[in-house]
Design a protein that fits this description.
By secondary structure, the chain is an alpha/beta fold. Helices cover 36% and strands 26% of the residues. The protein has an 8-stranded parallel beta barrel with strand order 1-4-5-6-7-10-11-12, surrounded by 7 helices. Helix 1 runs parallel beside helix 3. The protein is globular, with a radius of gyration of 17 Å.
Length: 252
């Protein structure tokens, strides 16, 4: 039976964690090392840390903050944001990453996925798919750096190409649901899951316990959690106990 994962996603800005709504309205969400330590104590399956401004500002990620989080992380750690070339990707691995997440930089330079997969293996390459749904219900790739739709690729075509290039996992963010607590976009999940065979981390919209149950019942392999762990009384222990009670098999 497939085991499911719960993955806190941490958004880094100027040395602090933040959380927002639909990639805006960010509020302070705590100190990166201390929050990581808390998730580790609660047996989170993995942690994802993204420097959200690095690519947009055209700079390298905050490796000092990355290193401090890696010191506290006793579970697998994914690092992302600003990894625009192989040298920066390699530095992130040496800083303590088990996996690397590529969103905008992969759109600019798809061959980067090939290079990192050849060196570190497909299991270390996570493709970030930022997806926006319009008023007609259509899905498009979204570029956070410019705040615009990516016109020359469809979500499914890009997901397939990235997997062919070596991405071993996809972080699927429903930008239109991010921070809203309205529930996961399971139609979006099915669209991408039907196109690729790699595991998918679904993110964007978790706000209630039954949202997690519904996603896992729909087959989602892993859930990325932000707002639900930051601005509520929920924690990994509580979520795990609830999901076990629903009959789901979790990794840890």
């Amino acid at each position: 039976m497939l085991t499911r994962r719960l993955i806190p996603t941490l958004l880094l800005r100027q040395g602090r964690l933040v959380k927002g709504v639909r990639y805006g309205e960010h509020r302070d969400a705590g100190n990166p090392p201390s929050i990581t330590r808390a998730h580790a104590a609660q047996d989170a399956d993995e942690v994802l840390l993204v420097d959200i401004d690095a690519s947009r500002e055209g700079r390298a990620p905050d490796f000092t903050a990355f290193a401090k989080v890696a010191e506290e992380c006793t579970m697998p750690l994914t690092l992302g944001g600003g990894l625009i070339n192989f040298d920066l990707a390699q530095k992130a691995m040496h800083t303590g990453a088990d996996k690397l997440a590529f969103t905008g930089p992969a759109l600019d330079n798809p061959a980067l996925l090939d290079a990192v997969a050849r060196r570190f293996g497909a299991q270390a390459v996570v493709l970030g798919l930022d997806i926006l749904q319009d008023e007609t219900g259509a899905y498009s790739l979204y570029d956070y750096r410019t705040g615009t739709i990516v016109a020359n690729r469809t979500p499914t075509a890009w997901a397939k190409e990235a997997v062919d290039r070596g991405a071993g996992e996809i972080r699927l963010m429903a930008v239109h649901r991010e921070g809203t607590r309205l529930g996961f976009d399971l139609d979006l999940y099915r669209l991408i899951a039907d196109a690729v065979s790699v595991p998918i981390i679904l993110e964007g919209g978790a706000g209630a316990l039954d949202h997690l149950d519904a996603a896992m019942a729909a087959g989602v392999e892993a859930l990325g959690l932000g707002t639900m762990l930051v601005f509520s009384d929920n924690n990994i222990v509580k979520l795990r106990q609830y999901l076990l009670g629903c009959g789901h098999v979790l990794r840890r």
